[in-house]
Specification:
Blueprint: E1 8-13, E2 17-22, H1 28-58, E3 62-67, E4 72-76, H2 78-84, H3 88-91, H4 108-116, E5 121-129, E6 135-146, E7 152-161, H5 163-170
Length: about 170
């Protein structure tokens, strides 16, 4: 059968004859394979998302996601809470300046370049402020999270405490 495995629709053409119009471009087997690939793709996306969440939440570096429109903290991990002495609830929705004292963190140019697409990320030594008011040096690596148009909508910030390195340098 020439059209076996294809979708077909009978079309009445006048009163004289019945004709079969093949409407499926892909054979039924190929459509099933496409559905299986779509399911495998979805499963892969879910696995990637699960792995990302695990790395973010359990990572040894302090991490946060900043909303680019308002410069407010959107998400934090446990390591950052430990570094700063704040709970996640205290940080979520707070301005970034709560933990990055603006007078000690002159990175406006780097943030502007990240926002305009000149760079996708940067690393810089900065100062982080603990809840008790003490400040300490960190290495901050910032990466832009862009929407489908390329606009920076969030920033992913990874932080490594450099206190021990600075202490060793002083000795």
């Amino acid at each position: 059968d020439l059209f076996k495995g294809h979708e077909a629709t009978k079309v009445k053409q006048g009163a004289a004859s019945d004709r079969v119009l093949v409407t499926g471009v892909q054979p039924a087997r190929r459509r099933r394979e496409t559905r299986r690939l779509d399911a495998a793709h979805q499963a892969g996306l879910q696995e990637g998302l699960r792995m990302y969440r695990s790395m973010f939440d359990r990572g040894s570096l302090g991490q946060l996601i900043v909303d680019f429109n308002e410069f407010k903290i959107h998400r934090v991990n446990h390591a950052l809470c430990t570094m700063t002495g704040y709970s996640a609830d205290e940080l979520l929705g707070a301005p970034v300046a709560k933990i990055f004292p603006p007078d000690r963190n002159p990175t406006l140019d780097a943030v502007a370049r990240l926002a305009d697409g000149s760079v996708d990320g940067y690393s810089v030594e900065r100062t982080l402020q603990h809840k008790d008011g003490t400040v300490f040096p960190i290495l901050s690596t910032v990466s832009a999270v862009r929407d489908e148009t390329g606009k920076a909508v969030q920033a992913l910030v990874l932080m490594q405490d450099l206190s021990e390195h600075h202490e060793a340098d002083r000795k």
